[in-house]
UniProtKB/TrEMBL annotation:
It comes from the Bacteria. InterPro entries: DsbDN, DsbDN_sf. It comes from Marinobacter nauticus (Marinobacter hydrocarbonoclasticus). Residues 31-53 are annotated as: Disordered. This is Thiol:disulfide interchange protein DsbD N-terminal domain-containing protein. Pfam families: DsbD_N. Residues 74-182 form the Thiol:disulfide interchange protein DsbD N-terminal domain.
Length: 196
């Protein structure tokens, strides 16, 4: 694919995102325009809070800690983040199917310091959406991302007492209309976790 074609496709994608955002603001019945979900560390749904600006992916996707935040059992363990995606929507897989698409990416930090915790992404579902000759791979509702800290990282996390995580997603409808990407935050309070 030539550079000119990539630029054209990127421009079209940005234009479609803007149109979708304006359309969603007008058709978002029952919700305040631009509402977002607050930071949450359980699978219990929480009420939206008012947000100003255009619609973004946080309007369609929420992030939950598996098992209500019970993670890091024993000396090492995995932390499971589950995507709660509204029906009719999906997010791009990691790696993204095309260079210009925004993949789902998890990042973590403790005590203000970025941590490079090994992360295991699920295999994407091959969707019916095709760009050029490429069928896009996506994640649907319930997709789980696993963070796999080693013993040294687990000890550092327990010392810090809290792990902050952010997952960057770009939500797209099953018809191929994408919203602006969003960073979904969630925190794991390690002081509340008792090893078994």
């Amino acid at each position: 694919m030539t550079t000119q074609a990539k630029v054209l496709l990127t421009g079209i994608a940005v234009f479609l995102i803007a149109i979708a955002a304006f359309m969603l603001i007008g058709t978002n019945s029952g919700k305040a325009p631009g509402s977002a979900q607050p930071e949450q560390a359980s699978s219990d749904p929480q009420a939206p809070v008012a947000r100003t600006g255009l619609a973004d992916s946080s309007d369609k996707v929420r992030l939950n800690l598996a098992e209500g935040g019970k993670a890091l059992i024993g000396e090492t363990g995995e932390i499971v983040l589950t995507l709660d995606i509204e029906p009719g929507w999906h997010v791009n897989a990691n790696p993204a199917s095309m260079e210009f698409l925004i993949p789902t990416v998890a990042k973590s930090s403790a005590g203000g310091q970025s941590l490079d915790i090994p992360t295991e992404y699920p295999r994407g579902r091959v969707s019916d959406i095709v760009l050029g000759d490429t069928a896009l791979e996506v994640y649907d509702d319930g997709a789980s991302i696993r963070l796999l800290p080693d013993e040294k990282q687990t000890a550092a996390l327990k010392e810090a007492g809290k792990l902050d995580m952010t997952v960057r997603v770009q939500a797209c409808s099953d018809e191929g209309v994408c919203l602006a990407p969003a960073d979904l935050p969630v925190a794991l309070n390690l002081d509340d976790i008792k090893p078994q």
